[in-house]
Design goal:
Helix content: 25-40%
Number of helices: 10
Radius of gyration: 30 Å
Shape: elongated
Number of strands: 12
Largest sheet: 5 strands, antiparallel
Low-confidence stretches: 1-29
Distance between the termini: 60 Å
Structural class: alpha+beta
Length: 380
């Protein structure tokens, strides 16, 4: 890369004023009006004068288009790199290497320190010929910053949740290794059971992290098999009863006949486990699970299956309804990573289904997910 030594770009000083900005069709080839583009677009002519400054560029830079048009590119768009160097002097688009055709996207600073993502293309009439136009694309960094904050929060949350079980595992194993003969068999069993439970917790956290990674990247695989959704619900209820929950706390209602449901059994178990656990842990009273046939969420015609899980607790505040399926949302302070419902939504949508949250008839929370029949093509 050639680094310019002068603050001026050839053609900047004493250059004639550029003619009026060309019509949108001339700039865009008639395909689209530059003001309709979501990204900022700035075009400078062969003299370095701005001839196009679209609406998004004005919004991102807080510079009115009328003020930017006709100004030199360095004046209309005074960018600096993260080390404080003036960008147009550094890159010298008009006087630098004649073989350059573009600048890759990078973070640069506007006056006041606001970051923007900037890429540029150098338009030449012929290879190694003089630059006739510089086309600059501007993007706001806010969306990327939100993504980065979300990733940072995810790492911090998982690290925090991992610290507790790993500390327990390390403490108990170190104690047992150092003082094995001093403990009774019952004490040893209690310690090992605690280590086993904490190891399961670590495994679940890692599984959640992997699920989120697959959901965010669109790589969540669904291996469809014939699923008996009624039997799956029954297994989860029986597990809670075996763990000490009263049997009369659960009410399961199956509406027959149900269509054959082709879905990933492990992932459907994960959805049911999360929704029922939320109702048991955060709700009160009877946990009601309704399984009914329904219209397919994809086209409203073919058969689908709906599962509704509701409780009689305080429910979810109205102002929180739109945040329930986002990362780190917690309905109460009773533990958890706040990632479960985000994963549930990702799994349901990977099946082509939908999931909603509302208020149950008894005042508690009501979660309802609907899955299409999803018969594999080779069985049709």
């Amino acid at each position: 890369m050639s680094v310019g030594t002068s603050g001026a770009v050839p053609g900047a000083r004493g250059a004639p004023r550029a003619p009026a900005p060309p019509a949108a069709a001339e700039v865009s080839g008639g395909a689209v009006d530059p003001d309709d583009l979501p990204d900022g677009l700035v075009i400078a002519d062969e003299h370095g004068r701005v001839v196009r400054f679209n609406t998004a560029a004005a919004r991102i830079t807080a510079v009115p288009a009328a003020r930017a048009l006709g100004q030199h590119l360095e004046t209309a768009l005074p960018l600096e790199d993260l080390e404080g160097r003036r960008w147009w002097q550094l890159t010298d688009p008009y006087g630098g290497l004649a073989i350059r055709v573009a600048q890759p996207e990078r973070n640069l600073l506007l006056p006041g320190g606001r970051e923007v993502l900037v890429s540029a293309r150098y338009v030449r009439e012929r290879p190694t010929g003089p630059v006739r136009r510089v086309v600059v694309c501007l993007r706001d960094t806010e969306a990327r910053r939100r993504t980065e904050r979300s990733h940072a929060e995810l790492i911090a949350t998982v690290a925090h949740e991992l610290r507790s079980p790993l500390t327990s595992v390390k403490g108990f194993t170190a104690t047992l290794l150092a003082k094995w003969e001093r403990f009774t068999d019952d004490q040893k069993r209690l310690m090992l059971e605690t280590v086993d439970a904490d190891a399961d917790r670590v495994t679940r956290l890692i599984a959640e992290l992997l699920d989120i990674s697959r959901i965010d990247s669109g790589r969540l695989e669904v291996r469809r098999q014939l699923v008996d959704i009624g039997a799956a619900v029954g297994r989860h209820v029986q597990a809670y009863v075996a763990a000490g929950q009263p049997a009369d706390r659960f009410l399961v209602r199956l509406e027959q006949p149900l269509p054959d449901l082709w879905a990933d059994p492990d992932k459907i178990d994960q959805v049911l486990s999360n929704l029922i656990e939320n109702a048991v842990r955060h709700g009160e009273g009877t946990v009601t699970i309704d399984v009914t046939p329904a219209a397919s969420p994809r086209d409203g015609e073919d058969a689908g299956t709906s599962v509704t899980v509701s409780d009689e607790g305080p429910g979810i505040p109205e102002e929180s309804m739109n945040r329930v399926f986002t990362r780190f949302w917690r309905g109460s302070k009773r533990g958890g990573t706040g990632l479960g419902l985000y994963i549930v939504k990702g799994i349901v949508e990977a099946h082509g289904g939908t999931i909603t949250v509302g208020r149950a008839a008894g005042g508690g929370a009501r979660f309802r997910f609907t899955l299409p029949v999803g018969t594999p093509a080779h069985l049709l």
